[in-house]
Amino acid sequence: MTRKIALITGASHGIGAASARMLAAEGFDICVNYRSDHEAAARVVAECEEIGVRAVAVSANVGDHDDVRRLFDECDDRLGQLTCLVNNAGIIGAACRIEELSPDVLAATFAINTFGPFYCTQQAALRMSTRHGGAGGHNHQHVIDCRNAR
Question: Taking the CB of the first residue and of the last residue of the chain, which one, N or C, has fewer CB atoms within 10 A?
C-alpha cells in the first residue's frame, strides 16, 4: 500500500503546525517546511512521530523557485511520492505607512504570499498529476480550530 505523504509549508507554527498534527493523526507522513525556526520545526516533527508516522523538517524559502524545487526533491528523497500539499506559508511584514513600505519588504511579501503557492503547486502537480504518473488529487478539506493552534 502506498503511504500518504503531506508537505505543509510554514508548518513550524500556528495553523501549519496544527495541520501537520491533524494530518499525522490521519496517518499521513509529514514534511514540515519552515524557513528559520529549526527548533519549532523539530518540535512539530517530534509530535508527528509520537503519533506514529514518519516526519521530517526541511528549511526552504517558498518565495524562491529553486528553493521550492529543492524542498520537494528532499521530501521525495526522505519520505516518498507526495500525495498532499498544504500551502500555508505566508508573511505580513511589519506594520507601516504605505509611503514607508520598502521595495525589499514588498518584494518578499509578494514572493512568499503570491508566487510561493504557485511554485509549490507546480511542484506538487509534477508529482501528483496523472499526466506526470501520479495518482491524481482530491479535495481534502478540514476546518482547523485556530484557537487551539500553537
Answer: N
